[in-house]
Every structure is written in structure tokens, then in C-alpha cells.
Amino acid sequence: MTSRMPRGRLLTPRRRMLGLAAGAAGSALLRPAPLRATAAPRLLPPVAEADALIAFGHTGPITDGGWTAAHNQGVLAVRQAFPRLRTVYVESIPYSADATRIFRQFVAEGAQMVIATSNYGDFIRDVSDRAPEVAFMECDGHTVTGNLGWHYITHWYASYIIGIAAGLMTRTNRIGFVGSFPIPSVYAGANAVLLGARAVNPAVSLQAISINAWFDPQAATQAGTALAENGCDFLCGIMDEPAYLRVAQQRGIKAAMWNTDMRQYGPDAYVSSVMLDFRAFYVEQVRRRLAGTWRAAPCFLPLGHGVDRDTWGSSVPPDIARQADAMRARILGGYNPFQGPIRDAAGRVRVPAGATMDDDHIYQWDWAVEGVSGLD
Q1: Mean pLDDT for each consecutive 10-residue tract of the chain (376 residues)?
Q2: Residues 231, 220 share a domain
Q3: Cβ-Cβ contacts under 8 Å for 98 (sequence gap 6 or more)
Q4: How many structural domains does the chain have?
Q5: H-helix or E-strand containing 175?
Q6: Do 167 and 146 share a domain, yes or no?
Q7: Which of 27, 188, 298, 341 pairs with 283 at a CA distance of 20 to 30 A?
Q8: DSSP code of 265?
């Protein structure tokens, strides 16, 4: 994916201005600008299953073993749930005018629903505005209109849980993070890992290297190697392939992955993965579209329903797994671990004591927490 723009900042950078609002216990908490809603969502007419066409636009190849492969499992689930409808998809859609052309082609072919598995910003918005009878969904989007909604996974909770394991397993107190671009999804992942680690081991720090790609095994291998040579004995990141896991396997250190279960590429090094599962969500969205009950809306897929930590690797001690899973149980029960005070990398308090970062905050996180280096 080296030729593509990052998922979270696709067309025009959304470096949102932050203002002050009251947080918990009356504390002032930096608030992100509201995610845009430009029109009231409306119901679209029902569609018979045998007459329906659902189109998927993918950011990468369905064989990437990561992000797009996870979305493709959702496509397969839709086909199984609704065997009489038709599905079409296009892989590796570029972030250019070609994206607009492809989305227009979906509409021209008669699609009643178009699902983009990445943020295509104005490229998809221009098409949805001109096709009000078609339902559009955008993964990692930021705009809701009458017929365009967005969805995303709350991966920061799974990352926090994995961070607890990292904080307990590291011997050098140095975590390495292989990132793609300095965008909110990467900040949220790295920050959550370190905050989880520091909850059980305050001495831990995290060094990140951005490789300007979601899928570049050579660059990810180089980054993982550099981090290991700099003393990091636990690697994590947000890549669509397992290159740095192979580095960890070769060097006898540990690693946590993203998107899917990748333990086959480093069984001794594998700790866990931020696991994505869009199957139930996509089946439900299509069901609503067919029934005429679908409405454009923002949607976060919560922990346990679309995103979770993977089954622990064989090298994770049972007592460490129990400690990390105790936090998982608390989060599933409604607890939010992203509580102030939280300082940024320069030592400034960004989230004061008594305040909590909700999902809207974390979704637009664009600064590194104290102890994280290499992202800014």
C-alpha cells in the first residue's frame, strides 16, 4: 500500500481544532470538533433480496492477510446470509479520481448499498450526494449525510489490554512500535499500548518508527530490526502483514500484531493481535438495507463485537494473561481506562484528573502521550 494515502487522513488533513468543555467532576477536558453531520439521515425503500446488489470498495488486496482480508470475511458472511443477492467488489482502490469513477460505476450497475472499507472522503461523498437513493457506508469516515454513514472499530481497548501484557513481559522496559503514518488510528494504537503497559509497569517507554505504508514487508522488517537493536524486546504496530513478527521470532523477543491471527509466522514470539471481525456488522447493515430500515449513522464497533484481543500466544504466562483479561472484563462491563491525568510527550496535561477520553476523543487522537517517541 505504499502508493496510497493513510486511512485516517485521506484527502485533506483533518487536524481538528480543540476547544474546552466540562469533563467528569467539573474538570476541563480538551474536546475534538464534532464529526460532521450535514443532513438528516433518511430511510430508503426496501429491496427484495433477489434484486439486491451490494458493492464493496477495498483499499487493498483481499489476500493481504490483514485489513482487507478481514473486511473480505464480512463480504463472504453477507453472501452466506443472503444467498440470493449479488455482491461485487473492487480491490486496491487508489485515493484519487479513480475512486470516484469506481464508486460511480457501482451506482451505474444498480447497487443499492456501497460499502467502502477505508476512508475515501470527498471521493465517495461526491458520489453519494448524487445518488440519494443508494446507501453508502465508509469505514473510518467522518461525515454523515442523508445516505452516507461511517463505522470504525474501537481498537484502542484491545491495544490497552495487550499493552498490559507487554508491560508485564518486557525485560528492557522498551516497547517498539511499527507504524504507518502519524494519523489518529496510529496515535490511538501506540498511546493505548503504552498506557496499558504503564498501568502495570510505570518504567516502560515506547519507541515508534513510521514507514509511510500499511503494507511494506521490507520496510517493516527494517523498522522491527532497528527497534530490536535499540533494546526493544516487545514489538507491536499497526501493519497489514507479519514482517516484524518474523523479526521477533528470529531474535527471541515478543510481538503483538493487528487485524488477524498471525501466529503461524512467529509462534514463539506471538503474544496476541488486535483482531477485527466485520462479519456480523455487515450482515446486519445489509439486512436493514433490504428491509428498508437502514439509516446513515456513525457507528463504533465495541470491544467484543467487531474487535477484540486474539487468543493469547503459547508463550504468555497464565498469570499475565489473567491480569490482562481482568482489564478486558472491566472494559466489557463499561469501564473506560483512558482517564486523566494524561500528559503528552512534552509533559503538558492534555486530559486532566477527573476527566475521561471517550471514543470520539480517541478516534481523533493526534498527539503522543508521555513516554511515546517517534510519532511526532
Answers
A1: 34 27 36 56 93 96 93 98 98 95 98 97 96 97 95 98 98 97 96 98 98 94 98 96 97 97 97 98 98 96 98 98 98 98 98 97 97 93
A2: yes
A3: none
A4: 2
A5: strand 174-179
A6: no
A7: 188
A8: G
Q: How high is the pLDDT of residue 23?
A: 34
- HSE-up (13 A, CA, CB side) for residue 212: 2
At 94, which CATH number? Answer: 3.40.50.2300
**Shared-domain flag, residues 188 and 239:** yes
Q: Which residues of 75-100 are buried (b: 16+ CB within 10 A; e: fewer)?
A: bebbeebbeebbbebebebebeeebb
Domain span holding position 89 = 49-153+278-301
Both 360 and 247 in one domain: the answer is yes
* Whole-angstrom distance, CA of residue 119 vs CA of residue 127: 14
C-alpha cell at 35: 464529526
Displacement of CA 188 from its chain's centroid (Å): 9
Question: Can you count the helices (H) and strands (E) in the chain?
Answer: 10, 19
What global pTM score does this model have?
0.90
Could you read off the pLDDT of 146-178 as tens digits, one per residue?
Answer: 999 999 999 999 999 999 999 999 999 999 999
State the CB neighbour count (10 A cutoff) for residue 330. Answer: 13
